[in-house]
Model the fold of this input.
Amino acid sequence: ANLKKIYTFSTAEGFWSVYHNIPLVSEIQIRYSYHLMREQRRPLWEEPYNCNGGTWKIKCYKQDTVTYMYHT
Done:
C-alpha cells in the first residue's frame, strides 16, 4: 500500500535518464527507500519471483548519506 511507482524504462538510455534525475538520498524522508525492479514486479519478499532474491543495504547516519552514496 505504501509503494508508489515513479519511473519506468525499457532501454539503457532510459535507465541512465532515470538514474541521473532521481532525487538525492539526502532529500528523501527518513524510512523511505528506492527500489529498482524488473517489469511489473513489486519489492515484496512474499512474491514468488523474489523468494531467492537478495537485498543490498547501507545503513548510516542521515548527515552521512550523501558521502556514502555518491563518493564511494
